[in-house]
Design a protein that fits this description.
Blueprint lengths: L33 H11 L4 H5 L1 E5 L12 E2 L2 E8 L26 H11 L6 H9 L26 E2 L3 E2 L29 E7 L24 E4 L18 E4 L8 E2 L5
Parallel strand pairs: 6-9
Antiparallel strand pairs: 1-3, 2-3, 4-5, 6-7, 7-8
């Protein structure tokens, strides 16, 4: 069963639930890390979208003083344009990933993810595959581990706690990205399917496959075009006050050339 019983955000088009049929596939246990992406970039001399364009969006809480970065994304003033920000310099040219090699690679566009897939002989998961994998075999659960946001064992995903966007209490242990193998994996052995960073999927964004009364579509691949490519899973910035999209059914989109400090990807076969 794919989707939500009721949408939190109508524009996400993630309800009602509907059946889909999926063939066997493999999905990487984690998002692609800085270490893996660095090996790709060094071997191929690949330049990401952010490197070619010369800038990317960085969350304002990582900038000091943030007043020096006045250019922000429309409607989301906490996303500031930073010249020189890219996967290897996540907060700008003075930052680096030396202590974050096991963290997800960020500032990755859909185009960058596709270039990595071509290099590695992999592909991006379809949206249906991604959701099936995120659910980890659980039926009807909102999270990869069940229905409780914070299980009795403690925080299970890297999302925002506190007053967004002013104060992140980091009760889950992290402000910003966490290592790709943080917290317990789901029953399929997959880490951080929700929270941490948004993950690109292959599909264009649009209505989910046919509803529950229709014959379940087999390996749906989405619409032939749309406003942008699907991203899944939420990120370390997700919070109930403005972006409650840290569930296994949550979805939104971004344009294929967009780069931000909270978007990465994992690969499929």
């Amino acid at each position: 069963m794919m989707g939500a019983r009721k949408s939190q955000y109508a524009a996400d088009l993630d309800s009602p639930q509907r059946k889909v049929k999926i063939s066997g596939f493999q999905l990487s246990r984690t998002t692609i890390t800085n270490a893996v992406f660095q090996a790709f970039a060094q071997e191929t001399s690949y330049e990401t979208t952010a490197e070619r364009e010369g800038w990317s969006y960085v969350f304002e809480g990582f900038l000091n003083p943030r007043e020096d970065y006045s250019d922000h994304a429309a409607g989301t003033p906490w996303w500031r344009r930073v010249d020189g920000a890219c996967w290897s310099h996540p907060e700008g040219p003075e930052s680096n990933i030396a202590n974050r090699m096991d963290h997800p690679a960020t500032h990755i566009s859909w185009d960058d993810a596709m270039a990595f897939c071509q290099y590695s002989g992999t592909r991006l998961p379809t949206e249906a595959e991604w959701e099936y994998a995120a659910r980890g075999g659980l039926r009807g659960a909102r999270h990869p581990w069940g229905n409780t946001l914070v299980p009795s064992s403690g925080h299970a995903q890297n999302v925002w706690q506190g007053d967004f966007p002013a104060t992140d209490l980091a009760l889950d242990g992290y402000c910003g990205t966490a290592p790709a193998e943080t917290y317990q994996p789901n029953e399929f052995g997959l880490f951080n399917m929700t929270g941490n960073v948004w993950e690109w999927c292959a599909d264009w964004f649009g209505a989910l496959p046919d509803g529950p009364k229709a014959r379940p579509p087999h390996d749906p691949k989405g619409l032939p075009t749309g406003p942008g490519r699907v991203i899944r899973g939420g990120s370390y910035l997700c919070h109930a006050s403005y972006c409650e999209r840290y569930f296994v059914h949550s979805r939104t989109w971004n344009t294929p050339d967009s780069t931000t400090g909270h978007t990465g990807f994992r690969v499929a076969l």
